[in-house]
Sequence to fold (117 residues):
Amino acid sequence: QVQLVESGGGLVQPGGSLRLSCAASGFAFSRYTMSWYRQAPGKERELVARIYTAGNTNGTYYADPVKGRFTISRDNAKNTVYLQMNTLNPEDTAVYYCSYFSTSRHWGQGTQVTVSS
Fold:
């Protein structure tokens, strides 16, 4: 069955960096656009970044709050999508989810990122 397993979250000080990973299985990973979303306490889940397939030159999209600080990438050989997060600030604190859409949207279990001094 489809599985999306996120890892790499944790507690980091403002200005620090984290790299999230999402290991995918149970579907043809390379054929799908992959996304990272986040949900902060009391807020709606929001799209953070997206990476398209090789057929779309692995193009990327970033939400305005993370442009220039976050980088999404994928390794189709490892069925894994990454989110490199730099210059983190407290507003980045959230649960981060890996996701893709195929007839319905599929989600991982999420990984907590806390930015605090």
